[in-house]
Automatic annotation (TrEMBL):
Protein name (database record): peptidoglycan lytic exotransglycosylase
Lytic transglycosylase MltA domain: residues covered: 156-313
This enzyme's EC code(s): 4.2.2.n1
Range of residues in the leader sequence: 1-18
Bias (Pro residues) ranges: 36-57
Biased composition regions of type Low complexity, renumbered to the chain: 25-35
Key words, A-Z: Cell wall biogenesis/degradation, Lyase, Signal
Domain of life: Bacteria
Catalysed reaction, written as an equation: Exolytic cleavage of the (1->4)-beta-glycosidic linkage between N-acetylmuramic acid (MurNAc) and N-acetylglucosamine (GlcNAc) residues in peptidoglycan, from either the reducing or the non-reducing ends of the peptidoglycan chains, with concomitant formation of a 1,6-anhydrobond in the MurNAc residue
CDD domains to which the protein is assigned, alphabetical: mlta_B (cd14668), mltA_like_LT_A (cd14485)
UniProt region (Disordered), positions on chain: 22-61
InterPro entries: 3D_dom, MltA, MltA_B, RlpA-like_sf
Cross-referenced Pfam families: 3D, MltA
Length: 414
């Protein structure tokens, strides 16, 4: 799983001083950094997406290959700006070498397919990036091409390396008793499936869920690497999977995904919408945060319905890191389902929200990002990124950019 765990708009899924009990309770409600004033959600810039080719993918498709592919438009005809192409080229350079060593779970490509474009990318001028993509790639529609895009960002929240008044929300490292089991070692039919849990006596059982962890269940098994000031912000940073802690002395500590408790992710935004807790126009990260802070007891119970819990490590180098173990790039990287999209592949999105349109590179995954043509756009860090990602929810069409000749090879059944 990637360093960043899930999408905001599917979370819509999104915490405040006094909401989390037990080990997560702040020491003092007003003595640390106060809850931040939420920037307004960025209002969408409407756009008209290009239409996909008619296609009826199999209802049971579990991979991109099974969903089927058809030719997309010539790349030179797609409305790709020079800036978007240059950002995408930079992102592609970061991960294209690793792509050649990976097995593509989508079944669409082979590692060697990416070698020529990767070699060319090393010295290709950024100002001519669009020509690079038009030379080495062809646009391919996977399944029906109907895309859904949300957004994520790298949050910055108040934190401290040591526990002090106002900083009482523990940031846990991976617990020593958390184990991951590769089921493929026991049966060929279970290849690719893994489960996480712990040993209790002679039995392997599910790991502690969120409410148990926040009540102190892992206090003896998991090192605490830092303390956050606001459990609401920490909950959202968990959903993002990485972020920055703004320290009392003005410094910054970067933290990233180190593990997860193995419990299924539940988007609390959907729960809140289904229960009519959110007013029209409130179903954004900012709106959800406001409701949780206004209803602390109910908010704590709702957050605990998301049994998934994320553990962190301090990041020293470049980041945040995506599912490939490499840095992701704001306005260029997207999270996707690797069963349908090769990790590292370029993608063109044509959506009903202009901000999401353009060329992206699939360098991440997410617990809520599942299925064909499902994407989570990464916007970087800062208030601008937070405002856009918090309300991103776009629909339209996606084309995957694959090495020239891939479509012919797939059509030939090779």
């Amino acid at each position: 799983m990637r360093a960043i765990v899930a999408a905001l708009a599917v979370l819509l899924s999104g915490c405040s001083t006094g909401m989390v009990g037990g080990a997560g309770s702040p020491d003092s409600a007003g003595s640390g950094a106060p809850p931040r004033a939420e920037p307004p959600v960025r209002q969408p810039i409407p756009a008209t997406p290009l239409m996909p080719s008619p296609a009826a993918p199999p209802a049971t498709a579990k991979t991109g290959l099974q969903a089927g592919v058809v030719a997309g438009p010539p790349i030179r005809t797609l409305p790709i700006t020079a800036q978007a192409a240059e950002r995408a080229l930079g992102a592609y350079r970061i991960s294209c070498t690793a792509m050649q060593k990976r097995t593509d779970a989508s079944g669409l490509t082979r590692g060697a397919d990416w070698a020529d474009s990767c070699a060319a990318a090393r010295n290709w001028a950024g100002s001519d990036a669009l020509n690079f993509f038009a030379t080495y790639f062809e646009a391919v529609q996977v399944g029906d091409g109907k895309a859904h895009a949300t957004g994520y960002y790298e949050p910055e929240i108040a934190g401290s390396r040591d526990r002090r008044p106002g900083y009482g929300v523990p940031v846990y490292a991976k617990p020593t008793d958390l184990a991951e089991v590769d089921l493929g070692q026991f049966a060929d039919s279970l290849k690719g499936r893994k489960i996480r849990g712990r040993v209790e006596g002679k039995t392997f059982v599910p790991y502690y869920e969120r409410s148990q962890i926040e009540a102190g269940a892992i206090s003896d098994m998991a090192p605490i690497i830092a303390w956050a000031a606001d459990p609401v912000e920490m909950f959202f940073l968990e959903v993002q999977g990485s972020g920055r802690l703004r320290l009392p002395d003005g410094g910054v500590m970067r933290i990233g995904f180190a593990g997860q408790n193995g419990r299924d992710y539940t988007g609390i935004g959907k729960l809140m919408r289904d229960r009519n807790l959110l007013a029209p126009g409130q179903a954004s990260m900012q709106g959800i945060m406001a409701w949780l802070r206004a209803h602390p007891e109910e908010g704590r119970a709702i957050m605990n319905e998301n049994k998934s819990f994320v553990f962190f490590q301090e990041l020293k180098g470049a980041g945040p890191l995506g599912a490939m173990g490499l840095p992701v790039t704001g306005l260029a990287s997207v999270a996707t389902d690797p069963a349908f999209t090769p990790l590292g592949a370029p993608i063109f999105l044509s959506m009903d929200r202009a901000e999401a349109n353009g060329l992206w590179v699939a360098q991440d995954t997410g617990g809520a990002i599942k299925g064909s043509n499902r994407f989570d756009t990464f916007w970087g860090a800062g208030e601008e990124a937070r405002a856009i990602a918090g309300g991103m929810n776009a629909r339209g069409t996606a084309w995957l950019l694959l090495p020239v000749g891939t479509l012919a090879r797939l059509g030939g059944g090779q």
